[in-house]
Every structure is written in C-alpha cells, then in structure tokens.
C-alpha cells in the first residue's frame, strides 16, 4: 500500500443492497454502450461539481462482471479518472465544492473521512440511487502536484435479450 492510497475502495460502490445479493443494486437493462454513456454523463456532472479550473485525465470507462452474476449477461461500468487543478491551492476548494454538491440533486453523501495513509487524505463516498451509481473521491492535497482521484461505478446492468456484454 502506498502513502497516498491506504484505504481500500468502499464495498458499497453503486448504492444499496437491493438487487444482486452482493450489495450492488440492479441498474436495469441496457447495452454496454448505453451504460457507458450514462456513466460518462455522471463523470461529467462530477467534473462540473469540482468548480475550479483544471484538467481531467483521459482514460475512459471500463466494463466488468457483476459479482455473483453470469458475466455474458450482467455487467457494471466503472470510470476512474483524475482531476488536476490549475492551482494546487484549489484542491481543497474543489473538495469543499464536491462535498456540498454531493448532497444535492439525488446525491447522498454516505461517508466523509480521512484515510489511514501518512497524508490522511480526505475521502468522499456518495450514491445516487435514482441513477444507480456511486462515486468515491480521494483528495491528494499533500502531493507535490495535488490532484483528486475519482471513481464512478454503476449498479449491475443486464444486457437486452439476445445480446452479450461487450468488454472494452
């Protein structure tokens, strides 16, 4: 475990306990392209919530199997990305903005805590039950180049009848 990532990802990613029996809620039926587009839209909303100038990393969403489900029919979408503010001092401002916004518009801030790393990074975990997504955010404010790590994770989707999961 590194100094800046001492906490494991929250196990309640993507909401409550209804659905799959694994703690991951059912997100409905969608093609992988539709689900990826939905998660990208949530990531864009989170980017807007940051509210300070900066840039986001470019890796796109990925597709993974749902725990305990048939992997050709059920999947989750995850989108890890990083935000780097133009000014390092804006990292803490961005986290305050995120903490405030993640209690509005269907979002519920589930946890706000300092991890056990030497840097005691601020972590935020929030769910949006109507969109069947969770976000886990970590502020790396004490790095030489401060940044914010963000991972959006969907609930468990089922592909439409006759289709299979397309892994990206």
Give an overview in words:
This protein has 168 residues and is of the alpha+beta class. 18% of the residues lie in helices and 34% in strands. The chain contains 2 helices and 9 strands; from the N terminus they run E-H-E-E-E-H-E-E-E-E-E. It has helices spanning 32-50, 90-101, and strands at residues 26-29, 54-56, 62-65, 74-85, 107-114, 122-128, 133-140, 147-154, 156-158. Strands 1, 2, 3, 4, 5, 6, 7, 8 and 9 form a 9-stranded mixed beta sheet that branches.
Shape: elongated
- Estimate the strand proportion: 25-35%
Overall strand count: 9
Order of helices and strands: EHEEEHEEEEE
Tally of individual helices: 2
Rg result: 16 Å
Please mark out the parts with pLDDT under 50 across 5 or more consecutive residues, or reply none. Answer: 1-20
Helix content range of the residues, please? 10-25%
- Measure the end-to-end span: 27 Å
Structural class: alpha+beta
State mean pLDDT (0 to 100 scale): 87
Largest sheet: 9 strands, mixed
Secondary structure elements and pairings:
Layout: E1 26-29, H1 32-50, E2 54-56, E3 62-65, E4 74-85, H2 90-101, E5 107-114, E6 122-128, E7 133-140, E8 147-154, E9 156-158
Parallel strand pairs: 1-9
Antiparallel strand pairs: 2-4, 3-4, 4-8, 4-9, 5-6, 6-7, 7-8
């Amino acid at each position: 475990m590194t100094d800046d990532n001492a906490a494991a990802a929250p196990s309640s990613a993507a909401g409550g306990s209804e659905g799959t029996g694994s703690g991951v809620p059912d997100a409905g039926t969608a093609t992988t392209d539709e689900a990826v587009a939905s998660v990208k839209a949530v990531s864009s909303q989170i980017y807007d919530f940051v509210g300070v100038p900066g840039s986001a990393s470019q890796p796109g969403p990925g597709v993974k199997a749902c725990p305990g489900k048939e992997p050709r029919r059920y999947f989750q979408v995850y989108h890890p990305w990083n935000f780097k503010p133009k000014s390092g001092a804006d990292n803490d401002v961005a986290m305050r903005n995120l903490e405030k916004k993640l209690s509005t518009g269907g979002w519920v801030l589930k946890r706000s805590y300092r991890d056990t790393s030497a840097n005691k990074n601020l972590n935020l975990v929030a769910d949006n039950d109507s969109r069947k997504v969770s976000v886990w955010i970590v502020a790396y404010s004490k790095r030489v180049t401060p940044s914010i790590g963000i991972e959006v994770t969907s609930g468990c989707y089922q592909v439409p009848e006759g289709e299979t999961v397309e892994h990206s």
